[in-house]
Specification:
2 domains; 9 helices; alpha/beta; single chain; six-stranded mixed β-sheet; five-stranded antiparallel β-sheet
């Protein structure tokens, strides 16, 4: 992406991509902004925002919804879209989409805002979830981190974002193979999905269970083993509190502005008092701990509690499974191995069978 001057005080924005783009461009007043909505894309232009040019004060970008990216130009003065057009790739450039802005009076800017309004997540599906047969529980698998948030780096040089995605795919495969469950991923490739979008996907798809998969890293290379977290605003110990604080910063790392909470998020925080969901989360955590061989788990308190954002869906039982420590060579090798992935997925699948069998029995 680049900005440049054109004759007549025109500021030209060029978005270059490896695929053709068909953005939705709109204007918002108070303050003056140009909003450009795109399909979910991988950004390669920096850290979430950049300096502008002329009356374009700055630009910022990120994943706005699960399947929608957004680029915003903050303006110092009103400007409208003079023209926009696509350019086919050639020997020097990939696909390009060009937007020319020109200065405008306030009235002309306000008039232009009525012609095209920004898309909102509510006006489009939050996630594409395949239809599932009735009575088959839907499990949403969340591979931690992704995109420009790599997570922890293992002693073997691999990143958490890649390892968690590999494990999540194997869990999905094994769950689907039982014929008893339908499993979907919050991300199927190396892309960043905001923490709130992950829980929104689970809620929008009426998920019966949400499992977030992570791998930790600490200074002590001898510390190893997995642990299972469920939601609590009061952490079970200092390590759990520190881990939750680190993971909850992922949206900031990825360049997503979380300064303003929506009413929906506020209501979610209030709804945390829903004891039934939290109790079911604790039951699945217990089932998972029982199916995982003891040598995989940390010796002290494998079930822990902390305020992870991804566990805050008030109506979907949710756990965060830390599958081991990437700072420990033995754990890192096991997590990266095919055998390790299969064993982790097998334990989760067995726990899911036990959890849903118990829930079904309680309904009769």
């Amino acid at each position: 992406m680049r900005l440049g001057h054109q004759p007549g005080d025109v500021v030209r924005l060029v978005i270059e991509s490896d695929q053709p783009l068909h953005p939705h461009v709109s204007l918002i007043a108070n303050p003056y902004r140009v909003v450009i909505d795109l399909p979910a894309v991988e950004w390669t232009i920096g850290d979430g925002e950049g300096k502008g040019l002329g009356y374009v004060a700055k630009y910022r970008y990120g994943l706005f919804a699960v399947d929608q990216s957004r680029l915003v130009l903050d303006l110092d003065a009103p400007a409208t879209i003079k023209r926009s057009f696509a350019i086919e790739p050639n020997s020097r450039f990939a696909h390009r989409y060009v937007i020319d802005l020109e200065p405008a009076a306030h009235g002309a800017f306000v008039s232009a805002t009525h012609n095209a309004k920004p898309r909102t997540p509510e006006s489009r599906p939050t996630a594409v979830v395949p239809e599932r047969p009735q009575r088959k529980p839907l499990i949403v698998l969340d591979a931690g981190h992704g995109g420009n948030d790599p997570g922890a780096r293992s002693v073997l040089g691999r990143y958490e974002k890649d390892l968690t995605l590999e494990v999540a795919r194997e869990v999905q495969r094994q769950l689907e193979a039982t014929g008893q469950f339908h499993a979907v991923l919050t991300r199927e490739r190396d892309i960043y999905v905001p923490l709130r979008a992950r829980t929104a996907m689970a809620r929008a798809s009426n998920a019966d269970l949400f499992i977030s998969i992570h791998a930790d890293s600490i200074a002590d290379p001898n510390h190893r083993g997995g642990s299972v977290y469920t939601l609590s605003e009061t952490a079970s110990d200092a390590e759990a509190a520190a881990l939750a604080a680190k993971e909850n910063k992922s949206d900031i790392i990825a360049g997503i502005d979380l300064a303003a909470e929506s009413e929906e998020v506020t209501s979610i925080l209030i709804d945390l008092a829903q004891r039934e969901t939290m109790n079911y989360s604790a039951r699945f955590a217990s089932a998972l701990i029982e199916t995982v061989p003891r040598e995989w788990l940390i010796a002290r308190r494998p079930h822990r509690f902390a305020g992870f954002l991804v566990l805050k869906a008030p109506d979907v039982p949710s756990v965060l499974f830390e599958i081991g420590y990437l700072s420990n060579r033995q754990d890192a090798q096991w997590i990266a191995s095919r055998k390790g992935r299969q064993e982790i997925a097998g334990a989760i699948t067995q726990a899911a069978r036990r959890f849903f069998a118990d829930r079904m029995a309680q309904q009769f």
